[in-house]
TrEMBL record:
<dbReference type="GO" id="GO:0042128">
    <property type="term" value="P:nitrate assimilation"/>
</dbReference>
<keyword id="KW-1133">Transmembrane helix</keyword>
<feature type="transmembrane region" description="Helical">
    <location>
        <begin position="78"/>
        <end position="98"/>
    </location>
</feature>
<feature type="transmembrane region" description="Helical">
    <location>
        <begin position="356"/>
        <end position="381"/>
    </location>
</feature>
<feature type="transmembrane region" description="Helical">
    <location>
        <begin position="20"/>
        <end position="40"/>
    </location>
</feature>
<keyword id="KW-0534">Nitrate assimilation</keyword>
<feature type="transmembrane region" description="Helical">
    <location>
        <begin position="321"/>
        <end position="344"/>
    </location>
</feature>
<feature type="transmembrane region" description="Helical">
    <location>
        <begin position="387"/>
        <end position="406"/>
    </location>
</feature>
<dbReference type="GO" id="GO:0016020">
    <property type="term" value="C:membrane"/>
</dbReference>
<feature type="transmembrane region" description="Helical">
    <location>
        <begin position="104"/>
        <end position="129"/>
    </location>
</feature>
<protein>
    <submittedName>
        <fullName>MFS transporter</fullName>
    </submittedName>
</protein>
<dbReference type="Pfam" id="PF07690">
    <property type="entry name" value="MFS_1"/>
</dbReference>
<feature type="transmembrane region" description="Helical">
    <location>
        <begin position="171"/>
        <end position="189"/>
    </location>
</feature>
<dbReference type="InterPro" id="IPR044772">
    <property type="entry name" value="NO3_transporter"/>
</dbReference>
<dbReference type="InterPro" id="IPR011701">
    <property type="entry name" value="MFS"/>
</dbReference>
<feature type="transmembrane region" description="Helical">
    <location>
        <begin position="284"/>
        <end position="301"/>
    </location>
</feature>
<feature type="transmembrane region" description="Helical">
    <location>
        <begin position="218"/>
        <end position="239"/>
    </location>
</feature>
Length: 452
């Protein structure tokens, strides 16, 4: 069975689906990062080290990352409406049960359940992409991805709930809100336009769904997302603790300043989607990585006292990052990371229109694993080196490696394509994106050979 562009829904239905999925994802992301705030109070109660706190913050990210692979496949098979709704209800139950934990081990087990909220991303990507035509998918997915602002909701609101009610009540409030949204999503959302096609099509085997993962390109995208999303999540979790430790702020002030990083790293994803549609995802990725290399290099420089042995005696001076300078640099870093997140996911429905859930699930999983590994590594680096800025040193190394691999891969592809006088889907931004997305489901996705 084939479906043409003429069968796409009207703008009203598109905006309805986009609005519901974006709001639901925002709440899920707020729940997913809840340990950035309540984890600090739990750490004080249980006397945790930075390594233990980092593990507690990172554990939900692990579950959310791994679950994306399976949730993406289920969404491709069953549709986003039911998968999204049931996921929110299940996560809400896990968040509520967390409040009965009394030991560190129980907290870690509870955190695994809380992490299911992170799987909402790939469900929403597959659900949202199905509603929009190729020329508008980048912008639509950018708007949906702005649901990352949920971490800012937690950084702003959770500290006040924490001070007023304690961490247990805070978690219960989060669970209640998420459960209500889960029920509303099932009631108000509609089945996506591909639902009828899924019912009439032969169900693909797991191996068929995962076939695109044999391509190195998928794993290159995964490395990009490891930084732009994984490092974003890790820093969103770590910043309140960092600000308290480095600048001596209280938890409310630390949460609000951390939100100045998470808000641009979320909302400007919409701009990243539009820029990817307008100028090309590759160009946006270059902007992202170059700016991130500069920002992480400056942020990684620890306070240092220099002594210069002069003719008439020693001269000493100190270099240190002030709080205003830190806020500005993290704002800039968050802005460019948000552009990069949208650019990575702009590629997937273009390259793999019938495997958005599977490929997007793997890319999202690797990115999410970054959000698990990095907070834990930040804590270990703090305990081992005793240098707070070591987290930014690690981020600098990751983004520099991603930039180098991207540039090498693109230059290699360009040489091959120029020699053959063709353009491949590795570089969709150099030509018209519609050439690479099937205008009808039965068309070949390979672009025509360009004249000499």
């Amino acid at each position: 069975m084939t479906t043409t562009n003429s069968s796409l829904p009207g703008h009203r239905e598109q905006y309805r689906a986009l609005g519901l999925s974006t709001f639901a994802f925002t709440l899920c992301f707020a729940v997913w990062t809840i340990f950035s705030i309540i984890g600090i109070r739990i750490s004080e109660q249980l006397g945790l080290s930075d390594t233990q706190l980092g593990l507690l913050m990172a554990t939900p990210i692990l579950t959310g990352s791994i679950s994306r692979l399976f949730l993406g496949i289920w969404t491709d098979r069953y549709g986003g409406r039911w998968v999204f709704g049931i996921l929110m209800l299940t996560t809400a139950a896990c968040v509520y049960l967390l409040t009965f934990a009394t030991t560190y081990a129980m907290m870690l087990v509870g955190a695994l359940g809380v992490g299911l909220a992170g799987g909402a991303f790939i469900v929403g990507v597959a659900y949202t992409a199905a509603w929009f035509e190729p020329s508008r998918q980048g912008t639509a997915l950018g708007i949906f991805g702005a649901g990352n602002v949920g971490s800012a909701v937690t950084n702003f609101g959770a500290p006040f709930l924490l001070v007023a009610f304690g961490w247990e009540k805070t978690a219960q409030i989060y669970a209640t809100v998420l459960a209500v949204m889960g029920m509303l999503f099932i009631l108000l959302a509609k089945n996506d336009p591909l639902a009828e096609e899924r019912r009439g099509a032969r169900q693909k085997s797991f191996a068929e769904q995962m076939a695109p993962l044999r391509e190195l390109r998928v794993w290159r995208f995964a490395l990009y997302y490891f930084f732009v999303f994984g490092a974003f999540v890790a820093l969103a979790l770590w910043l309140p603790h960092y600000l308290i430790g480095v600048y001596g702020l209280d938890i409310k002030a630390a949460g609000m300043i951390a939100a100045l990083y998470t808000i641009p790293a979320s909302l400007f994803r919409v701009l990243g989607g539009w820029l990817s549609d307008r100028y090309g995802a590759r160009r946006v990725m270059y902007w992202t990585f170059i700016a991130s290399v500069v920002c992480t290099f400056l942020l990684s420089y620890p306070p240092t006292r220099y002594v210069v042995h002069g003719i008439d005696g020693d001269l000493s001076f100190t270099l240190a990052m002030s709080l205003p300078a830190f806020v500005v640099l993290t704002f800039i870093l968050g802005f460019f990371m948000s552009l990069g997140k949208a650019a990575v996911y702009k590629h997937i429905p273009v390259y793999y229109p019938k495997h958005v859930g599977a490929v997007g699930g793997v890319v999202g999983m690797i990115g999410g694993i970054g959000g698990f590994i990095l907070p834990l590594t930040f804590g270990v680096l703090n305990d081992v080196t005793g240098i707070w800025q070591s987290c930014f040193m690690l981020m600098f190394l990751i983004v520099a490696a991603a930039l180098a691999w991207m540039h090498y891969a693109i230059r290699k592809a360009e040489r091959v394509e120029w020699a053959a006088h063709t353009e491949q889907t590795d570089l969709p931004e150099l030509a018209s994106p519609q050439l690479f997305y099937p205008l009808s489901r039965g068309h070949n996705t390979r672009p025509p050979r360009k004249p000499d």
